Fold this protein.
Amino acid sequence: MKGRVEAIIGAQWGDEGKGRVIDALWDRFDIFARYQGDTNAGHTIIIDNKKFVFNSLPSGMLYHGKLCVIGNSAIIDPELLLAELKELQDKGIDRARLIISRAAHIVMPYHKILDKAQDNFRGKGHNHEATNIGIAQCYVDKYTRSGLRLEDIVNERRLRSKLEEILEIKNMVLTRLYNEAPIAFSEVFDLTRQWGRELSPYIADTSSEINCAINNGKNVLLEGTQGTLLDIDHGTYPHVSNSSHISAGGCVGLGIAPQSIDRVLAIVKSYSTRVGDGPMPTEDNDEIGEFLREKGGEYTTTGNPRRCGWIDMVALNHSMMVSGADAILLTKLDVLTGLNKIKICTAYEIEDDLYHSFRNGLFFFSDAKPVFEEIPGWQEDISECRKLEELPIAAQDYLHIIEKHCRVPVIFVGVGPERHQTIDLGL
Ligand code: GDP
């Protein structure tokens, strides 16, 4: 009998709380697969007051006996991946088996140098994601068929011949275009060969393994990274990441059939946040934004404040549509406690016209003003609520409004960061 396949997608601009949701689902799945994205996409899981942040590894690494998969479309920064693996080994919590697709592309040292050189050349503010060092260049090489994949770096002869060819061109670009120093072949070769040796135990044909496992009744969770509105094709281009964060990205990234996905779970934060430039119609630069930022701890790992604002149903509806979401898992409802009024953006007003659906183009956002529905807030602490009826009526109303606009049920509510601080409504 076929195993069950479910996909987790971030429905906003990332940081929705995907890690904690995956943690709530850990015992239902045998395989945790990371299908897209890059080292920029962190998941945070808090168990027994211990915080684990995974930037490269699937969240399933924390659970005994699971198989964790990094698929074909994932980008690997070996330096970060090996450091994460070592940290888990040192703490004695590398509990799962890891396999990495031989087709996954490698972020090389020259990608980081080129990324910085390009940013310097273009001037400040051009990098859409400041923490994106090396990743964009890695994707450039992938799509110009000049990238190095895991299968290349575990084979010394292949690595040498490919790298010689690649470095000749990279050095030409670095020295002639950016006026930077050339990169020494031996340094990059030695480092990459060492990465290859350390990563060779994990290399696999992940698509075959995962399909075989599904056919043998194993349950698979597709761990989406980042968020739909940062999707390269369906987000707010050009202020987006380099990969696909919608549910179909799981099929492309892992090599599984679309019809194998049984359920798509959209992770939605109770308000909006965004890192970096780009449209965010409900952003609040006043006290509400400040309230959400402080109460929600909305700072990046490098300490930069996230942009914050009210929930945006126009954007959310777009995310539900492109991923075919079956249900919403709502996180951080506790952060809204203490507000007198809560606003919900139900449309954008553009030149006297009302728009209820999202248009994929920057021109659309330049004059978009959010139209809000306003409801009363609640003052009661909800962090100990475990049933819907225990939530204040105003909080229940908030959930129902989200369900009404998105036309899917809310089946999980996060009322605090800890594993037990949840309300299960049919997860
Ligand atoms: P991801 O980037 O979507 O995987 O988001 P994370 O899983 O890393 O979560 C972002 C942050 O939100 C982490 O610090 C979590 O502990 C925190 N978080 C997640 N859910 C809740 C919640 O329901 N309430 C509160 N207060 N914090 C939460």
About this structure: The pocket of guanosine-5'-diphosphate is lined by residues 10, 14-20, 42-44, 46, 331-332, 334-335, 414-417 (CB under 6 Å). The chain has three domains: 5-102+203-265, 105-199, 269-424. Residues 5-102+203-265 form a domain with the Adenylosuccinate Synthetase; Chain A, domain 1 fold (CATH 3.40.440.10). The longest strand covers residues 341-350.
